[in-house]
Amino acid sequence: MSVERSIAIFSPGLLGGSLAKTIQQRMPGLEVRVWARRDEAVEEVRQVLPGVIASSNIQEVIRGASIAVLCMPIQYMPGIAQQIAGCELSDDLIITDVGSVKGGVVGELEAIFMQTKAAFLGSHPMAGSQRTGLANARGDLFHQAACILTPTGHTKPEHLGRLRTFWVKLGCRIQEMTPQQHDHCVARISHLPHSMAVLTTLAALSQDTRVLDSSAGGFRDTTRVAGGDPDMWAGILMQNRTEVMAALQDASSVMRELLEMLQSMDEVALRRFLAQAKALRDLLPAV
After folding, report:
1. Would you give the DSSP letter of residue 76?
2. Residues contacting residue 223 through CB under 8 Å, at least 6 positions apart
3. What is the pLDDT of residues 95-120, one digit of tens each?
4. What's the CA gap between 137 and 230, in Å, rounded?
5. Which of 86, 134, 154, 250 is spaced 20 to 30 Å from 35 by Cα?
6. What pTM did the predictor assign?
7. Are 64 and 96 in contact (CB under 8 A)?
């Protein structure tokens, strides 16, 4: 049995909507409340997620919650957190998030809730899609997804245990890292690939989109994530810019190696270069 009684979800986009659907499917009987900024979005939640309590009133959504999850782009989290902190909160409330950057976010949000009865502990379920919005929410989005928890020296063991249990019940595989370790890791396996997909898209298409007429699955797969929400990704790349810049510098160095091999027509080095990439890519676990 879950010790949780009511989950408050702030912002009903792809992740927030998928979280609500997954809770309804995998933790039946648990109350789900969803906050949306606009009245039209509240009405959409009521239509798409029957059984969910939806409101644009933060106090109404957070009242009685044992876990609250911030699902908006990371640049908007501190403002919403400040408003939540000004509400009447349950003694056992844990605030978490689904943000793709942790260093600055954890530091700021932990400090905000340290002044309240609630506690903050960062989460990052490695799940998503280039498709955004509640209309694309799925009840299986978190199935077998890695979820990184980022405890700090202020985190209580019982809070970490409850949050681990929560994400496991939703189908996730749990990892724990410091916020700094998290940001280094995701810069390499998420933020760099997104940046390279954007660069590939711009380099391939900015001068002549007619080449798309001849495109195949390889181009589609390589550039898929470039279709992500620009507002969300601008926030992610700016918040994690130090780690992203380091990863891009490494990518630039590798690109220079490839250019030099092609310029010098060094086929032996090129084959070795491609074989190394294949060997590393083959280490990727099967889904």
Report:
1. G
2. 197, 200, 201, 204
3. 999 999 999 999 999 999 999 999 99
4. 19
5. 154
6. 0.91
7. no
